[in-house]
Fold:
Amino acid sequence: MWSARQYKVLNERIPIYEIRPPLAGEVPGFVTWDFHYHQGFGVSPDGTRIDISFKHRHPHFEIFWIREGRGQLARDCEVIEIRPHSLIIMGPGDVHSWLKTDHVKGSTFSVSEVFTSSANFSLPFSQLTSFLEPAGSRAMQLNPTEDSLIGNIFDLVRDPKVQASFDRREVLKALLLILFSKIHGFYAGEGARTLGAGPSPLTREFKQALLTECPRLVSVKEFAHHLKVSRSFLHRAVLQDTGRSPSELIRERIIFEAKRLLLHTQNTPAEIAARLGFRTPSYFASFFRRHTDCSVREFRSGRAA
Structure:
């Protein structure tokens, strides 16, 4: 099911687990299974007992539907409370680990770019993050109607008739399009939407560039040049679509990366400052305090308010 390779974050190594190449009859880039996690351990689809308590990440999306049980899941800089009838989305690169698991049971999808490309998905894989962005922490408590709908989609994906159908890829594609549209609608609070609705293509490209190009690019001017538009045009488009300026979103992303590195690496503040493009460690320290109301040392030691 999974092949592991090491991904280096500065001087730390955090495992990345990828979907392995498909066996005969399997759809490339797509995996689904039922899970049961308890006291930090689970069982993989091939029956292997696995430790789920260590930090890791994936290059694909994981969508967890929790049927029963309680626990905690660490995702980057937040701790998500696990409860029955909830939905959790892990995006590519999210560092996560299961902190507590008390008979947490449910189902999950893993969807990679291999699947969206081969299935001619109507929304490129690179835009899925920004399409699902209204989720915020990408964790949601479902009401009974939403829970029933999500459960039905998961059940259909695992239906033996779907698994055996000759056009299985097209059926899975249709079900995933429905799932992503419904998730988008749940989080946006506006009912189900069709894929492709929402922000302009430029804003989606800007949000994707924030994920892939920051901190190589750190100014609105640099992002505008990267996207081949003027600075003022980018500012107007992003502000109109999000209600926030590009510079606000860039600062937010830099703070997020700083927190991720402080939490998940042993690098010094000076090394992190250099990695994020700050001229001096002191400038990084003042920037961090100004936008978080705590010092780098307080945040790393867990003493932030």
